């Protein structure tokens, strides 16, 4: 049942990626680049804001959950850097791929959480609300490195649409403010388009020949996200005696495939789109096997 539920959530994503591969010749490179830019500037920021602001976030939950989520992201960043010597020479291209080691698929998280004991959706909402801004701080800072002076890098970080949207959404959630439906409705419409557009673009951009072949570089990054992070989170939760509901969410969160938007952010900074798109596809494809296994472990342990 667990495997069937997770696979039913993943299969539509796979089909959208396949569709992108089938129609890649129908649009020019400039058209695909423009689509990525639209996603970077408008669609995904709307998705991030809606996801973070749509549920109230209690300050006590932030204090309890945020440090653990940030530790998972930090570990992904550190372990992913081990792939540096196997990766592209240009640091910007490496950074575009490196981010896949700690970023996560929010939509898949809300599909997977209903298969956990007690369906702890509220805990996941807080975890994602705290994780999205930090994950984007890490990614934007890495992608901005070497792009100018310290002030230039800071300006790029604090004006990044992903970061502004996720921080804004988290602040709304913490404040308890309810945004009027008239304002939220167009944002929700834009957010609904973000993931399908990103997945189609992934399929059109990625190197399909490399999809079935993990080299040392992609192997380290994908294994970090799908194996090392959930294993370390499970061990840490057991060692610390974490609350079972929180621990199950954290392990599942750590085991999520990388974000569909990873290649969108990479393209926005001028990094290699094909490399990051291929890593997104590899992570998503392999998670069809690894994520149900981790959820089965969660049921057995917690």
Question: Which key features would you list for this structure?
Answer:
14 helices; 302 residues; mainly alpha; Na+/H+ antiporter like fold; 0% strand
Fold topology:
Elements: H1 2-23, H2 29-53, H3 59-80, H4 91-98, H5 106-112, H6 121-144, H7 150-158, H8 161-175, H9 181-205, H10 208-211, H11 216-240, H12 244-254, H13 262-268, H14 273-301
How would you characterize this protein structure?
This protein is globular. The protein has 14 helices and no strands. With 302 residues, the chain is mostly helical. The protein has one domain: Na+/H+ antiporter like fold, CATH 1.20.1530.
The average pLDDT value, as a whole number, equals 86
Which band does the percent of strand residues land in?
under 5%
The succession of helices and strands, N to C, reads HHHHHHHHHHHHHH
The appropriate CATH architecture is Up-down Bundle
Q: Which regions contain 5 or more consecutive residues with pLDDT less than 50?
A: none
Q: Report the count of strand segments.
A: 0
The CATH class is identified as Mainly Alpha
Summary of the model, kept short:
The chain has 302 residues and is mostly helical.
């Amino acid at each position: 049942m667990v495997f069937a539920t997770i696979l039913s959530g993943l299969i539509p994503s796979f089909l959208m990626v396949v569709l992108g591969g089938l129609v890649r010749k129908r649009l020019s490179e400039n058209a695909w680049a423009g689509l990525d830019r639209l996603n970077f500037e408008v669609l995904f920021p709307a998705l991030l804001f809606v996801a973070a602001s749509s549920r109230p976030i209690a300050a006590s939950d932030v204090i309890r959950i945020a440090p653990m989520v940030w530790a998972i992201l930090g570990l992904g960043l550190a372990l992913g850097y081990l792939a540096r010597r196997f990766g592209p020479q240009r640091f910007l291209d490496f950074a575009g791929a490196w981010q896949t080691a700690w970023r996560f698929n929010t939509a898949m998280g809300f599909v997977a959480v209903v298969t956990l004991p007690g369906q702890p959706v509220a805990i996941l909402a807080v975890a994602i609300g705290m994780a999205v801004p930090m994950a984007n701080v890490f990614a934007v800072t890495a992608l901005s490195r070497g792009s100018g002076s310290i002030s230039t890098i800071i300006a790029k970080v604090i004006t990044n649409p992903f970061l502004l949207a996720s921080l804004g959404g988290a602040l709304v959630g913490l404040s308890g403010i309810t945004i009027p439906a008239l304002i939220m409705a167009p944002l929700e419409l834009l957010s609904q388009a973000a993931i399908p557009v990103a997945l189609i673009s992934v399929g059109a951009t990625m190197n399909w020949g490399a999809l079935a072949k993990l080299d040392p570089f992609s192997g380290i990054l994908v294994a970090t996200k799908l194996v090392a992070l959930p294993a370390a989170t499970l061990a840490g939760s057991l060692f610390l005696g974490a609350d079972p509901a929180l621990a199950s969410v954290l392990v599942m969160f750590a085991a999520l495939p990388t974000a569909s938007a990873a290649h969108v952010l990479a393209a926005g900074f001028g990094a290699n789109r094909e490399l990051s798109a291929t890593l997104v596809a590899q992570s998503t494809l392999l998670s069809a096997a690894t994520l149900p296994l981790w959820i089965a472990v969660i049921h057995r342990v917690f």
